[in-house]
Amino acid sequence: xxxxxxxxxxxxxxxxxxxxxxxxxxxxxxxxxxxxxxxxxxxxxxxxxxxxxxxxxxxxxxxxxxxxxxxxxxxxxxxxxxxxxxxxxxxxxxxxxxxxxxxxxxxxxxxxxxxxxxxxxxxxxxxxxxxxxxxxxxxx
Length: 140
Known about the structure:
By secondary structure, the chain is α/β, with parallel strands linked by helices. The chain has a single domain (about 5-140), classed as 2-Layer Sandwich (Nucleotidyltransferase, domain 5), CATH 3.30.420. The protein is about 45% helix and about 25% strand. The protein has a 5-stranded mixed beta sheet with strand order 3-2-1-4-5, sandwiched between helices. The longest helix is centred in the last third of the chain and has 20 residues, at about 120-140. The two termini are about 15 Å apart.
C-alpha cells in the first residue's frame, strides 16, 4: 500500500503508548495508551484499515547504552508483533529519556497539573516523540 502508515510504540508493562504518522509521513501524533492486548487489537485494526509499513518501537537502553531487563520485555512484545503483523518492518529505536521529553512537551503545551499526572498521556506522547525522531532522521 502506498499510503501505509508508520506507527510508533512506547512499550510498558502496564500500558503501551501508540502514535501514528500522517499519510505524508511528516508529523507524528499520539493515538492513545492501551493495555498490551488492546494495543495489539488497535494495531491490527489500523493495519486492516490503512496498512502499516513500519512499526518503530522504543528500545529502552540503559543510560550507558547497554541492554537490560527492559529490552528483554520489549523483545518479547516485538516477537508478538512479528506474528501479528507479518511483513511489517519492525525498527528498534533508542528511547532513552523519551518519557522525560514527553513530560516537558506536555508542560510546554500548557496542560494543567491534573492532566500532567495522567501517566497514559506521557506514554502516548513518548510514542509520538519516538516516531517523530525516526521520521526526522530516516527521511521516510
